[in-house]
Amino acid sequence: MPAESFTLAAAQIEPVYHDKEATLDKTCRYIEKAGEEGADLVVFPETYFPGYPYWRGSVSIPRWTELMIDLQKNSLSVDDEALDVLGDAVEDADLYLALGANELSERPGSETLYNSIFYFDRDGASMGRHRKLMPTQEERAIWGRGDPASLATYDTDLGTLGGLICYENHMTLSKAALTAMGEEIHAAVWPGFWEQHGHPGDKTRAEDAGAVETCDVYPAMREYAFETQSFVAACSAYMSDDVPEAFSEDELGFNVASGGSMLVNPAGIVKAGPLVGEEGILTADFERDERRATKAYFDAMGHYTRWDAVSLDINDGTLDPVSGGSPPRRDGQERLSAAESEAIADEHDVPIAAIEDVAEAVLERPE
C-alpha cells in the first residue's frame, strides 16, 4: 500500500550553465540536502541539466550552432556515467528523483537533443524517462519531438508517479492519458515564471509573486491538481542576475528563470510557493486523505466521468527509423518472415515452402 503521508520537494536550484560536471556536483549536493529535509520525492526544473537555452532566439545562426554543439556535449544520455553518480546520490538520500534535463539521443548516428525528465527510484535505479512530446515555438529548433512511449507513469511507495514538461501541462489529452494510467503524484517542470502581457508570445521575467495574476503556470498547476486529483510538485527554473561565463547579457534574451516553484494538493490548494526570485528547496507535507477527500466530491477516474460519451486513444509506440522483418501488406497484415518460416519448418520437420504456402493462404483468406 502507498504511504499515507509523504513530503514533496521542488529543488529550485541554479545550474552551472552549460557545464555538465559542475552541474552534476551541484545536483548531488542538493539531492543530499533534500534528503536531509525529509523529502520523499524531489523535482528539479525543466532542462535544469545543464540549463534551459534562453539564448534560443537571441543569437545569430553561427553562434546558435556553436551553442548547440556545446549543449550536446554537456547534456545527459541514458548510457551516461553521470546517471550512475546521480543514482548513488539518490540512494544515499533515500528518495525519488524527477530530474529535468537536456537529453542526447542514444540512437546510433543521432546527435538530436530532447527535453526530458529522468526518473530514479529510492535505490538509485533509473525508472525511465519522459521526452517532451511537442517543443514549444522556437524550441523546435533545439529539441526533437518525444516518443509516444515515454508518456508513462511509475509505481512508487508514495503512489503512481508521472510528469509533464512546461506547456505539456496545458495539453488536455496528455493530462487525460496520465490520469487514465492512474497518476497520483505529478512532477511538473517549467523554465521559469513570468508576467504575460496579453498573450503567450509577450511575456517578461516575473519580478515577484504578484505575477500569479497573469502567469499561466499558477492556474495550470492548481487546475491540474484539481481536475486529476493529483499531488503536484511544480519546479521552475531559477537563474541569478549574474551572466554565465562565456555568454553576454544580450544573448540570454528569453531569460524568464525567476523560479515560481509550488507544491499543490489534490484540491488545488497551494501548500508552498510560489517561490520567486531566489534559489532554494521548497517542501511540503501531504496526507493521502487530501486526495480521498477531493475524490469523494469529484473523481476523474470514477463517478465523475463518462467514458461512454468521451474516450481516449493512447499510442504507446516508439518512433524508429527502420522497421524489421518483412514489409507489411497493404491490408495491414504482416507476412511471415523467412526466419520465422524456417523455425516453424524445423520444429515440425516439414519443407519451408509448405509453411510459406500455408501462411500466404491464411493471409489471402476472405474476411
UniProtKB/TrEMBL annotation:
Q: Where is this region: Disordered?
A: 318-350
Key words of the record: Hydrolase
Q: Where is the CN hydrolase domain?
A: 6-288
CDD domains membership? nitrilases_CHs
Top EC class of this enzyme? hydrolase
Gene Ontology MF terms: nitrilase activity
Q: InterPro entries, per this entry?
A: C-N_Hydrolase, C-N_Hydrolase_sf, Nitrilases_CHs
Does Hydrolase appear among the keywords? yes
Question: What family is this protein classified in?
Answer: Belongs to the carbon-nitrogen hydrolase superfamily. Nitrilase family.
Q: Which PANTHER family match?
A: CN HYDROLASE DOMAIN-CONTAINING PROTEIN, NITRILASE
Q: What's the protein name?
A: Nitrilase
Which species does this protein come from? Natronomonas moolapensis (strain DSM 18674 / CECT 7526 / JCM 14361 / 8.8.11)
